[in-house]
Each structure stands twice: as structure tokens, then as C-alpha cells.
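In the current project phase, we have settled on a layout for protein records. One protein thus recorded is set out beneath this paragraph:
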Amino acid sequence: MKIIGIGNAIIDVLGRVDDTFIKKNQLSKGSMKLISQTELEKLLSTIKIEKKIAGGSVANSMVGLSHLGNEVGFIGKINDDDLGENYEKDLNNQKVTFCYKKKREIMPTGTCVVLITPDNERTMCTFLGASAIISEKDIDEDLIKNSEMSILEGYLWDSNESKLAFKKIIKNSKKKVMTLSDKFCVERHRTDFLNLVKNYLDIVFANENEILTLFETDNLKKIINFCKALKKIIVITKSNKGSLVIFGDTVEECSAKQNLKIIDLTGAGDLFLAGFISNYRRNKNLKECLNLGTEMASKIIQKVGARL
């Protein structure tokens, strides 16, 4: 496979709620919160479920890359239960090779409740389940070494076991790509993420809030100047303000598409990454990479869920 992704293998459960529901459950709108199995069961009992789909940030990106004709695989830990079986079948149906042999685990397959408010923002409540215990033993070194690049998510840093798997992939990858995942994830691991960005990664994806949090500033211009010195590809998405990419002294920008019928923002960043990377590995220039990322993100936000 040309591209290998590693991330939390999680079933997405989508439902619509109002802002009162978010406040009542003491959630921060637009963020991702880790929850217990008890909290998960309580949430599922109080919402109307619209859709269930195999997800996880990097898994969504792998499906997008497959949709664009790339040969991709995904590593994520699931349990040998009904949800795990559905997860594997769903990815394989999307022509994403599932590179993990499931077995009976103590924890059930991970689940993410995606709460969509009337403004189309998504708030995620995630029970990591088996996905959180992926370890370096679950990583096939040869698979990583023989691929063009590996794509990882910041959420892996929330577990000591998955952190070791992350480090093993970094050690064996030809090209290393990471998405910072979530503002609060960046807050939890800011020092480690800075070290990764400066010393180990080749391409970094972040939204505006995540990159501002990483560098502890509210000035995007300062960040751009700092990123120029890193000589890494840093891609920043800014919602309806478009996106930009920094690589050395080169800074390219792309405007967001206008007059869209926005239904659900779930997966916008994941599909943006898929579009960018698809053009990047085909040796397109950085502006063309931004353009395809924008096109993919624009398509996904006009439907429910993270699948085109």
C-alpha cells in the first residue's frame, strides 16, 4: 500500500441535538471529550440516532484517499464483536485495507457520539474502548517501511500504549504526516507535539485554533514566520476563511468555497487532508494541494457524516 494510516478505530454514531442539550450535558461545543462506557450508554439513550458508520479521524481520511484512487491501508484496534466486524467490513467495502487482525479484547470496539447542533457544528463524545489499547506489537514494521508515507492522529497521544505504537511508526516511516486532531488534545500534549513538529514530522495539519494553541499565541502572522523557519509543510485550515500552507519561505492560500448548503461539518478536516495528500503524492504544487483539499471539504459538509 502507498499510504498507511494509524488512528483510533471508532464507530461514529450521529445524532442531532439543540444547544440546550450541549449545555445540559456540560459539553464544550465543537470539541471532542473522552467519556466512560457509562457516559456513552447514557448519551445513546437520550438521542435519536441518524447514522452509524466506521470512523475515526485518520480512518475518514483513508476513505477519502481511497475515493480519490489511492492505494491505502488503515491500522486501528477493534474488538472481535459485532461493531468490530461491521467496522472492518465497512472499511474494506470502501477499498481501504484493514491492516489489523481482530481478536477478543477486554474492551468493546470504540464508539464516538457525534452531536450535531442547528448551526451544523459537531461536538464529539468518544469512548475509546479497544482503540485506546493499540500497542507497538500491533504494528507491522515491514508494512510501514514499504509504504510511501504514514498518517497519524494526535489523539493517539492520549494513551501510553498507542503512544508507543506512534513512536514505532515514526521510527520506520519514510514520510511522516500528523494531524493535531483537537484543540484540547493539543493542550494536553503541547510540549510533546511541539517536539514532534520541530524534529520528527514532515507534514502537519491543524485548524486555526489548534495551531494557535500549539504556539500559545493569538497572532497567526507570528506562527507563519515561525513555521517558515521549520522548513516543514504546515497546513492550516481556517473554516470559512479558507486555508494556507507554509513550506520554507513559500506561503500559499486558498479561499473557502462560497454559497454552500452546509448540513454537517463532521469530517471536513479529515477530507481536506485526503484531498491535499492525494495531490501531494502526485507531485502537484502546494496551491493545487490546497485546492483539492478545499474541494473535498466543501463536498463533505453538504451532507451528513464523513463519507462522500
